[in-house]
Each structure stands twice: as C-alpha cells, then as structure tokens.
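step: validate -> pass
step: tokenize input -> pass
step: predict -> running
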Amino acid sequence: RNTDSVPQENFDIYGQHLSTSGQPLWEPNGRIICNDPYKQVNPILIFNIDMIYCAWSDERNSSPGIYYQVYNSNDIAQLVENGKMIFWGIGGGINRHLIANRSQDVVVMWCDSRDYETLGYKIFFQFLNSDGSLKLEPNGRPITLPYTGNQLSPSVVVLPDDSIIFAWVDDRNGNDKIYLQQIDSNGNRLWGDYGIPLTESTPVEQKDPRVSYKADQNQVYIGWSNYDTFAGTLRFYVYGQMIQNEQKQWGPDGIMISYYPEQDFIYHECTLNDLKENYFSWQDANLTEYTQSIFTKKVEATGETAQGWPESGLQVSTYPINNWDCKQRF
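step: predict -> pass
step: emit ->
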C-alpha cells in the first residue's frame, strides 16, 4: 500500500489475520508490518512453530535489501519496528526471494547482483530465528563458489533432515540450463562447489524449475520447461525427473510429462507452472486453435502416467475458450 506522499515510489507492507470463518482479527484496514520510507514490496508469509514469519524486499536506504518480521501466536511482533535486516548494502538488485520452513527455523533464499559486472546474479541463503538472530554469515551464504554466469529463478524444497535442494536456471556455458545443489542442515554444500546439471544433454533452453518432496516415499520430484526440437520446430514441453536415495530414477535427462500424439506435438507449447509432490501443472498453448488452457497430471514413481489420468494431462477447466483474449493462466 502506498501511504507516502510520492506516488508510485513509496510502498508499505500491510497484513491481516483472518479467523477460520474469514473474519479479520487485526485492524479493519490491515496492520502495518513495515512503513519505513521509500519502497517495501513482495512480502512472503510462512508459519513455523506457532510463529508467523514475513520477509520482503526493501529499499529504505536507497539500496535493495531483504528484511523480516516475526509474530507470535498472540499476534505480537517479536522483532524491532519495521523489521530486522537479512541482507542489504552490497549494491545491485534482488531478482527473487523465497522462504521455507525447517524444523527449528526458516530459510530465506534470494538472487542478488552484488557482483553482477564480473559474475552475474548469484543465489544466497540465510537461516532465520524467531528472535532476530541469523545463523550464517552476514548478507547470506552462496550456494556455489564464484564463477561467471547468472543463477536465476530458484526453486527449493526442504527435506526431513533440514537439508535443502535448490534448482535454478544457469547460463554459465551460454545456454540457459537447470542446475541443482543440496545444502545440509548446517549450510554446507553436498553436490559440489558449483552444483550439478539436472540433465546430461544440453537443449537450446531450460526454464521454470520446480522442486517438490513426497514424504511417504522419500522422493524428490523436479519439473521444468524444456525447449525441444520436433520435426524441425522448436517448442517448450514439460519434463520431469525423480530422485530417490540421491539417484536419478528417470534416466539421465528425465522424461516428457506434457505428452501428445506425434502428429499433434508441433501444435502445442507447454510451460510448467507448479509441482506438488508428483502432480505436475502447466499452461498449454494450442497454436492451431489460438487458445491457452491449464493442465495437471499425476505421475507414478516409475515415470508412467498414474492410472485413470489422461496421458496428455487433465484439463482443469472446460470453460469455453475461443481466442487468445480468453486465456487460462496461473
């Protein structure tokens, strides 16, 4: 909400606590979480051990940073007014930030350009406590050692042992390709100092990485959009991989999820939007009907489409779509 005098320049963070029946429990127009001068945007909330964590991007001191606030079960702020700093003051910009639960704390991850001119955007992470203390070094720890190339569009999942698997888009070798890293519960790298590529092959482009965990089978699922050539035509299709006991289960390059009969492949373009356990969801652009629809698909641990699910996925809405002006999107 913009509550300052300069239009489109000063945004503040507000929040609301709703009861189970949808009734507001805080002030009628929301409670101020941060109204420091200049701009605060992109708040993210998460619940952890009866605490509510809120993290946001902040430009209060003319340089991009990330701050957070914690509320207890009585809705009382635990940190200083306008939040505690996680990262600030190194220069550059913040591309994206995420927050996820661990057993006794939370982890915040972000991309920043502190060394953009020489190294590009890099991903950092920090462990946060509810009392405002940080467990790692100031301004976060990088997920790899330095190298020239951007790390963008991170996705993460926390495992039961509090280790974290990261997936991101990386252009270190020219093409946008997805890389992986696992960080142990103490913040140490497990999959090399530079991460590992998701696939052995290097397609024209990979994007939209998503990571999810299926606890009952101890399986990590990874999805992405893969730019493929079919009959001489380049199209994005949705791919997936399953990792169990640190081993790829669906071959070195994963499997295609958004499947179509051979004669229909070039008439569809599919980009991944979400992944929850072994349910993949994507946007399908039909290039002959000029329509766009949302599909989802359950995939078994074997890589086969789950029983009862269409091979090409289930269209989640059959509402009539007649043209590009009536798209279905996430």
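step: describe -> The CA atoms of residues 267 and 287 lie 5 Å apart.
step: cleanup -> pass
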